[in-house]
Write the structure tokens for this entry.
Amino acid sequence: MAVEPVRFPYQPGGDVRNESALPFLQVRLQYQRHVVDRFGLVDSGATVNVLPYSVGIQLGAIWEEQRVEIALAGNLAAVPARGILLSATILHLSPVRLAFAWAYSDEVPLVLGQMNFFQEFEVCFYQAEGMFAICPRNNG
Amino acid sequence: MSTTELIPLINPLSTAEKFQLLQYLVVELGKEAGAFPLDTNSTYPVWTPYGIPAESADKLATMLAEERAAYGS
């Protein structure tokens, strides 16, 4: 059965002007037995998902155990990153596996990018309404 | 202060300073008119990690594929 798109309002960013609402999406992340709820920036221009360092630590991940080194770019070009796989749940939707570049920095929000958030979800932005909608790609 | 009082103060300024003043006035007028949505005194973070080498995304895709192969999809 097809799943209806779920709509979300744009949210004010923590470190930008209040009127600059952005497509932040609340997501429940799980790594092994640890779970955290965070807002992630849905960013179609981001090549990969990015996980801030402290969120990985809260999830119980150990930096030294993540062996896959990931090169970042842009304002994160100088930040080391390691690949990490997490389960992600959005509201009532089925959990998906997301691969993150776990950045060795907290000077970055949680970013949901092309690899592989946009591979798991269709996303539509309705800027004029201050809304965006997501729909699982594998919704049968 | 009126413009009559202001102009004699501006006249001695150098050309560069007059351009700076002009630029300042243009920005201020723009703000008042709502023509400049961006504030010159603010910082606008751009978080998009754009231009990441393709191999970075490939590595993440490989991690997902290896997990799928190991545990089933």
Summary: The two ends of chain B are 74 Å apart (CA to CA). The interface with chain A takes residues 39, 42, 44-53, 55-57, 59-61, 63-64, 67 of chain B (CB under 8 Å). Chain B has a mean pLDDT of 81.
